[in-house]
Structure formats: C-alpha cells, structure tokens
Design brief:
- The protein has 320 residues and is mainly alpha-helical.
- Among the domains are: 85 residues; 79 residues, Orthogonal Bundle (Actin-binding Protein, T-fimbrin, domain 1).
- It is built from seven helices and ten strands.
- A three-stranded antiparallel sheet has the order 5-6-7, with helices on one face.
- β6 and β7 form a beta hairpin.
- It is rod-shaped, with a radius of gyration of 69 Å.
- The chain starts with a helix and ends with a helix.
- It comes from Mesocestoides corti.
- Keywords: Coiled coil.
- GO terms for molecular function: phosphatidylinositol 3-kinase binding; protein-macromolecule adaptor activity.
Length: 320
C-alpha cells in the first residue's frame, strides 16, 4: 500500500511538470500577443517587467509544485488562448495590466506567488483569464486537499506498518521461545521414552524368569520325591525297586548281592516314609545301610542284618 502511494506521488510530479511546460508556452503566447498590441512605452516596459517576473518565478514555483497529483489539467489555458485570438482589438489607447496573485498551491503549506493574468481594455475584463484563474485555484485547492489526504493516509499506513513490525518481532520472539520449550519437552519425552523401554525390557526379563520359576515350581510340586527316588515296578512275579530284584525264582535265579541291595532300598524307603509321616516305630528301629542294612528290636535289642551272609544267617537263626 505504501508503494502505491509513492507511485501516485511520482505520477503527480511528472504530470505537474508537464503542466508547467504548457503554462510557460501559454504565457509566451500571451506575451507575444501583448507585444503585438499598440501600447505605450511605459506600459510595454511594465508588461515586459511583469512577464520577466512571471518567467523568473515559474522555475521556483515549479520546484514546489512537483508534489501535486494527476488530476491537474489545463483547460483554462486553451480557453484563454482562444479568447485572446478571438478578442476584439482595443481602442486607440487601450489599458492592459498584469497582476500577480498568490495562492496556497503547495502540499507543504507554504505560500508561493502563482502568476495569474488579467487583460482589461477600456475597463472591461477578459473573462477567459478570470475563468482560468478560478479553475486553476479550484484545481490547486482540490489537489492540495487530496495530497494532504494521501499524506495522512501514508502516515497512517506507516504507523500501522511500524506497529505490525513490532508485533511481528514480538511474535517471532514468542515463537522462538515456544520452539525452544517444545524442543526441551521433546528431549524430556525422548528420555522418558527411553527409560520406559529399558524398564519394559527389564520387566519382560523378570516376567520370563517368573514364568520359568513358576513352571519349575509346578513341576516340582507335582513330582513325588519318593517315586522319583525309589521307582518300584515288577518283573514277572518278582518285585523291582530301583532296578534291583527283591527275590528269585527257580526259573530265574537272582544273585544275593542284588537282593541285598534291593532290601537296603526297601529299608531306606520305609525310613523316609516314617519321617515324612512323622511316624515312630515302637518295637524296632530300621538302620538303612545300603546292601548291609540292619534292624534292631527296642528297647535294647541287638541289630540284626537285613542281608544274606553266613554270619547273618547264623545270627538270625540264633536270635530266633
């Protein structure tokens, strides 16, 4: 918007310069017409001096009028030129005078002389010049008011632009602050997320260990220790404990060392059952010693062997 105002002012300056050139050409034409009239020497000198003053004032006023707008046109110049060509000649002693009037023609508010011309013959005014003066003053007033309005608008836009620049600067700082805060929050979020992953991984490991421990516990709880330690089965008509036969048949002879080992396993199994069930034998006590286990009578009985040997058979038979 500010650039458009500047363009309007520049166009107004160019058009005002063209108007000044046209005005100077019209004044030269008017001066030539004045010189062609039969005037007295004093009047011609006065007119020449006035015209010189006009031409000398024109460049100075032209520098001040460069800020006018494009609405300024010069219809009055053409009207005055035609009126001068078509006006009747004066009497033998006409009276022609040049007057300089001032008007407020500049945007800066300074008053400069703006030349306006009146030509009178026998006291009768030329209406073309008066119309030109009125039109020129009206157009200058209009241009002045429009220029002031544009200047006020330009000042308002510049002030608004400064306010917007300050607002943009404040918003930029606020955006930068919030961006920094967002980055900080993102970093904290990433750190917490990493910690969460580590904790979840540790939790998964603990859960796996817990599942394995529970599986082992369930398996051990369902396991019978005595069945695992003393598996009992049979082989035909002969019982087996831990793979050791507890007897023999004529058709299937078993050696005494194996039978003695099987008897030792039986002694150990009975002792374990008694401890598990918190049972105490009243008349005897079993002494498990492998394939040489023994049994003793209570309260003071001597131990008797639970295995086959010469001495053991002798003791067993003698004790009976």
């Amino acid at each position: 918007m500010c650039q458009e105002c500047a363009d309007v002012l520049v166009n107004a300056q160019h058009q005002l310069l063209e108007f000044q050139k046209e005005e100077i050409a019209s004044l030269e034409t008017f001066l030539a017409q004045l010189k062609s009239l039969p005037l007295g020497s004093n009047e011609v000198d006065e007119a020449s001096a006035s015209s010189d003053e006009v031409f000398s004032a024109s460049p100075e006023s032209g520098q001040e009028l460069q800020q006018a707008s494009s609405d300024l046109v010069s219809p009055g110049l053409e009207q005055s030129s035609h009126s001068n060509h078509n006006s009747p000649q004066a009497s033998s002693e006409p009276c022609i005078s040049l007057n300089v009037e001032t008007s407020d023609a500049l945007a800066g508010g300074t008053n400069r002389p703006v030349p306006t011309f009146r030509c009178s013959t026998d006291g009768n005014s030329v209406t073309g010049n008066e119309d030109f003066d009125a039109a020129t003053n009206s157009q200058l007033t209009k241009v002045h008011e429009e220029l002031l309005s544009l200047q006020r608008e330009l000042s308002s836009l510049q002030q608004e632009s400064r306010i917007l620049d300050k607002q943009i600067a404040m918003d930029t700082k606020e955006l930068q602050r919030r961006q920094e805060e967002l980055d900080r929050i993102n970093n904290e979020y990433n750190e917490k997320r990493l910690m969460l992953f580590e904790v979840e991984e540790a939790l998964a490991v603990l859960e796996a260990r817990f599942e394995d421990a529970r599986y082992q516990y369930d398996r051990l709880r369902q396991t019978n220790v005595l069945n695992a330690a003393f598996p009992i089965w049979y082989d035909g008509h002969i019982g087996i404990i831990n793979g050791l036969h507890l007897g023999r048949l004529p058709n299937k002879p078993i050696g005494w060392p194996e039978i003695n080992g099987a008897l030792g396993q039986c002694a150990m199994l009975v002792t374990c059952l008694a401890k598990k069930l918190s049972h105490a034998f009243r008349n005897c006590v079993i002494i498990p010693m492998g394939n040489q286990s023994k049994i003793a009578a209570l309260p003071n009985g001597s131990p008797l062997p639970l295995y086959n040997s010469t001495s053991a058979v002798w003791k067993f038979t003698s004790s009976r």
